[in-house]
Amino acid sequence: MSLHTGPSPVTDARPGTATATTSPRSTSRPSASGSSTASPVPPADIVVFGGTGDLAVRKLLPALYLRDRDGQLPEQTRIVATSRAGLDEAGYRDKIRGDLPGFVRDEDHDDAVVDRFVERLTHVSLDIADEDGWAGLVAELPDADKVRVFYLAIAPSLFGPVSDRLAAEGLVTAQSRLVLEKPLGHDLASALEINDAVGAVFEEHQIFRIDHYLGKESVQNLLVTRFANTFLEPLWNATWVDHVQITAAESLGVGTRGGYYDGSGALRDMIQNHLLQLLCLVAMEPPTYVGRETVRDEKLKVLQALKPLVGVDVDSHVVAGQYTAGLVEGEAVKAYRDDAEAPASTTETFVALKAEVSNWRWAGVPFYLRTGKRMESRFSEIVIQFKDVPHPMFPDADGVSEPNRLVIQLQPNEGMKLHLTAKEPGPGGIRLRPVSLDLSYAQTFDQPSPEAYERLLMDVVRGNPTLFMRRDEVEAAWRWIEPIHERWARPEHAPRRYPAGTTGPFAATTLIERDGRSWHE
Ligand SMILES: NC(=O)C1=CN([C@@H]2O[C@H](COP(=O)(O)OP(=O)(O)OC[C@H]3O[C@@H](n4cnc5c(N)ncnc54)[C@H](OP(=O)(O)O)[C@@H]3O)[C@@H](O)[C@H]2O)C=CC1
Ligand SMILES: O=C1O[C@H](COP(=O)(O)O)[C@@H](O)[C@H](O)[C@H]1O
Prior knowledge:
Layout: E1 44-49, H1 54-69, E2 78-83, H2 89-99, H3 111-118, E3 121-125, H4 134-140, E4 147-152, H5 159-168, E5 176-180, H6 188-199, E6 207-209, H7 217-227, E7 241-249, H8 258-262, H9 265-283, H10 294-305, E8 318-324, E9 326-328, E10 331-333, H11 336-339, E11 350-356, E12 366-372, E13 379-386, E14 398-399, E15 405-411, E16 415-423, E17 431-440, H12 441-445, H13 452-462, H14 471-488, E18 496-499, H15 506-513
Parallel strand pairs: 1-2, 1-4, 2-3, 4-5, 5-6, 7-12, 8-18, 14-17
Antiparallel strand pairs: 7-13, 8-11, 9-10, 11-12, 13-15, 15-16, 16-17
The site of the ligand O=C1O[C@H](COP(=O)(O)O)[C@@H](O)[C@H](O)[C@H]1O has 3 residues, from loops.
């Protein structure tokens, strides 16, 4: 079998029109993200608000470093970090030089590239809440014709104030893009408020709402698997699919982010965005072509078709859990309440739920979603469980015939498995045996997948919003989530406890077993 790695699956224009994204220019060295997406992007001034924070240091700067290494950042690209830390340019460069090795793999570390990369960096000290300090930022952005990226790696409550200030300082140009981190707000009302505030300054096409799951290679491959092959489409519906499972399990706890997490919880942190986006990609209709608005239009229709959890018993559809102390991958770990230093917290670190997409294609097909921290292992996958054969054709056979299952493994080992039933070789009668066709990305493509942020940051600079959430999508997702939070706001609600290192509370097993099904472990 030969597989070829051509241009990215996601284009930013109709097929047949030339675009920067699909241009076949190659870089001087092979790139982890494939030939077309590694073409140099336009020169840009990238302003990272929250440039000393966890996200910037752990994800954004390493991603930019890797794109620099692969020749994607032109010489004129500069990165301006802002925070209240009183760092000067040299101090910030030293900090990032020191931090980078902790967040890039040893084989990706190259001293010469680090030297070149840190030369691009500077730091402006400013407090978003104050008017002082902004002149320093204005001075760092002299070229109004250059692409300008304002990346808000800060709390969502600061998104509106930053936009207003950028406008007041005259920094918003036609070439500006605003990047907003998730979760966008806390609920529908705050999301509307933020969207209104940023929308008063930036056009919708300038706003990039990040959901980093959309930048994962395996997630983009889901689109290709569905729409660049013919054999799945006739089966991809309620006639043949029994149910769908989407799991994002983490073995990590909340780490140093307990302060943020305790006000958020798994429903806001993972389900409202990442898992619902995955559900959309599985359930959406084929767009006319895969382009910047067409995919988002189809995802929105799925969110709008989610059966509202209104007038139903929410508890029979959704299970919340919180981890207690336990053993994860052989290591003793603390309870969530100790991790988050919140002794009476009722924040959920686990959610399992059953959703339904009320449309012709999916009527009656449950979508089971599940995510949790401190689970027994880290794995994210989508399982398409097909219906059983309509009639037992081998009544006298030994062994078992299981329904077909397509498992799309998102992480850690990206790939795909198609579970089938085969005849075990032998001279006697027929013995049925479950087998699988396996596609491992690592073995097939022989190159590491880039980090999601690498891909997404380059798309921002290019101005390609396909893999970002549009305003209406974010709001539709919050709207669907609302009844769950309303139910959980009642005093009698408490998440069920599960020991760290397990698959979550028993109620999650009951949720699916009640329907005669079971989680794919
Ligand atoms: N960390 C992660 O893995 C992820 C984070 N996110 C989101 O990204 C955003 C940032 O998260 P994270 O990096 O973890 O947060 P941190 O608390 O680690 O960092 C916040 C940053 O914002 C700066 N900051 C805070 N208040 C102000 C202010 N008033 N004026 C100027 N700068 C300010 C801080 O610097 P200083 O205090 O020195 O001013 C710091 O650089 C959040 O919205 C979070 O939900 C989303 C997905 C993953
Ligand atoms: O957005 C978030 O995602 C991470 C999980 O991301 P992954 O790429 O490691 O699967 C999660 O840990 C974090 O709480 C959440 O904010």
